[in-house]
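From the methods appendix. Each design record in this collection lists the tokenized structure first, followed by the designed amino acid sequence. Records were kept in a plain field format so they could be parsed without special tools. The example shown here is representative of the layout used throughout.

RECORD:
FOLD TOKENS (361 positions):
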């Protein structure tokens, strides 16, 4: 094993062992509290430009398989763990996590105190960090990190470059891909939807030209204010067609309706976040991955109302339009990984499309 350093912009230094690809990496350091699902986390496009710390102490014990990827090309900058398993044991396992990181040229760092690192992020918020050789000049790296800016082009990196179909015999759904997890596509396909996936910058006019029965605004990475063209398109779609927003799609919907968003101190990332449905009082355990949230006070002057709230910190987890068939949630109803408590939201979307029955000339 090769010794490597993780250096944070506040000057904190963690020494560990490199695994996977042995190159350096730099990005925003975030943590995920899930006990399982490392393959889905690695391949979730919402982690674009981020280095992910997994709080569960042993990662890789059931290996890597062909079925659990959420995208073809992982965009994660680096994976940071307490211990990486060298000898996975599972009937579906085809490779180790070390093999995958080498193949995808993603650096890994193991053997560090991930508990201390997570507590540091919780106390001071997410920070930029760099994984580098142990001979690196720490003061110089810290200076570079402090002067560097976070990426703002993540959505353009992870979105599909051209439209493509996933045919079905049911309702036609256009999915706007801001960094879509394959789990969203799987859930729509399970319901026989005739799906067309389009790039993030597709205009409202182009979307409506496809004659959809409904539109799904997918998850994705980064600050929703970094894609103003998407906000404009969503604004023009409100009232024209049923809309279901997920994660980044939820934030873009709120911005399109005139609300505001803000950056959370350390975000919500994991598969154990309780969310309350305000109308029913029901609590669901949800999968989440986001660093921004909708400002509740800013919704007061819009046509949206709050439908769901996070029980951990009271932030907005769901909204719906007062008049139109438009709703969204901050969490992931498709899970992958995580509980499927909120999976019925896809059925709700199908029902909305049936009730609306959009007529095109």
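DESIGN:
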């Amino acid at each position: 094993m090769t010794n490597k350093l993780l250096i944070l912009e506040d000057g904190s230094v963690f020494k560990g062992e490199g695994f996977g690809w042995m190159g350096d990496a730099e990005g925003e350091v975030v943590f995920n509290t899930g006990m399982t699902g490392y393959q889905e986390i690695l391949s979730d496009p919402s982690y674009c430009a981020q280095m992910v710390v997994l709080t569960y102490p042993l990662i890789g014990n059931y290996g890597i398989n062909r079925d659990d990827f959420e995208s073809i090309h992982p965009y994660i900058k680096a994976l940071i763990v307490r211990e990486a398993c060298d000898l996975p044991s599972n009937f579906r396992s085809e490779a180790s996590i070390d093999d995958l990181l080498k193949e995808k040229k993603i650096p890994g760092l193991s053997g560090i105190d991930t508990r201390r690192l997570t507590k540091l992020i919780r106390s001071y918020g997410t920070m930029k960090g760099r994984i580098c050789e142990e001979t690196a000049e720490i003061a110089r790296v810290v200076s570079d990190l402090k002067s560097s800016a976070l990426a703002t082009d993540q959505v353009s990196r992870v979105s599909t470059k051209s439209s493509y179909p996933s045919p079905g015999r049911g309702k036609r759904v256009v999915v706007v891909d801001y960094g879509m997890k394959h789990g969203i596509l799987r859930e729509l396909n399970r319901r026989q939807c005739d799906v067309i996936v389009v790039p993030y910058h597709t205009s409202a006019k182009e979307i409506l030209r496809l004659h959809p029965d409904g539109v799904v605004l997918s998850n994705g990475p980064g600050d929703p204010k970094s894609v103003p063209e998407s906000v404009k398109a969503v604004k023009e779609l409100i009232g024209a067609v049923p809309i279901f927003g997920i994660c980044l799609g939820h934030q873009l919907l709120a911005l399109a309706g005139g609300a505001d968003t803000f950056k959370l101190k350390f975000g919500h990332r994991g598969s154990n976040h309780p969310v309350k449905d305000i109308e029913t009082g029901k609590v669901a355990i949800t999968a989440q991955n986001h660093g921004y949230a909708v400002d509740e006070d800013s919704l007061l002057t819009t046509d949206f109302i709050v439908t769901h709230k996070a029980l951990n910190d009271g932030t907005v987890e769901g909204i719906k339009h007062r008049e139109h068939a438009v709703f969204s949630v901050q969490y992931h109803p498709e899970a992958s990984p995580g509980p499927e408590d909120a999976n019925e939201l896809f059925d709700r979307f199908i029902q909305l499309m049936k009730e609306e029955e959009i007529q095109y000339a």
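APPENDIX NOTE: The CA atoms of residues 204 and 237 lie 6 Å apart.
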